[in-house]
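User: Can you recover a sequence for this backbone? Please restate the input before giving your answer.

Assistant: Of course. Working from this structure:
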């Protein structure tokens, strides 16, 4: 039997971090199923989903702990591998506007009010073309409950966009395929 493990890690960025993790997973006979990794402010952080034989979970966990000696903090959590709820719609959200404190809170508060779950979320500050002003950009993938229509979500986000002065684009994720 195989166990799904979710690994999270953070450490000072340097060459070989991903290779060190991948080496420990491979040495335990594990399979690297998916990951999201990023360099932020000199740190390298990520989340990784691996599958490993039930008999190797302890060995892999111990091997990953060895990486802490080199400054890489790793946490390991067994996953129940639950999927999406029946009837959920996956929606992609793009948002851009002038940077200001509270944008993420405002957007996620609106989503919470509709019972929408954030599946993926990436944000960054970028310079606007021509003016060079700092713009805040979000790309997110959302799981929308079956009792919330795409139009209800779009309307709620458009009301918010008008309040906080951002541009919002909402698309059914299937439109990108």
């Amino acid at each position: 039997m195989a166990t799904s493990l979710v690994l999270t890690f953070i450490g000072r960025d340097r060459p070989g971090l991903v290779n060190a993790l991948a080496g420990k997973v491979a040495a335990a006979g594990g399979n690297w199923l998916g990951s999201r990794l990023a360099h932020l402010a000199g740190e390298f952080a990520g989340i990784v989903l691996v599958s490993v034989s039930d008999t190797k979970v302890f060995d892999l966990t111990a091997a990953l702990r060895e990486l802490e000696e080199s400054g890489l903090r790793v946490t390991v959590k067994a996953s129940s591998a639950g999927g999406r709820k029946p009837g959920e719609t996956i929606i992609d959200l793009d948002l851009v506007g002038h940077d200001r404190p509270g944008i993420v809170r405002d957007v996620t508060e609106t989503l919470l009010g509709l019972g929408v779950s954030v599946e993926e979320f990436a944000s960054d500050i970028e310079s606007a073309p021509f003016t060079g002003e700092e713009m805040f950009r979000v790309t997110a993938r959302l799981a929308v409950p079956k009792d919330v229509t795409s139009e209800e979500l779009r309307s709620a986000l458009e009301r918010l966009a008008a309040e906080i002065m951002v541009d919002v684009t909402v698309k059914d994720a299937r439109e990108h395929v």
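That completes the design. The chain has two domains: 2-79, 89-176.
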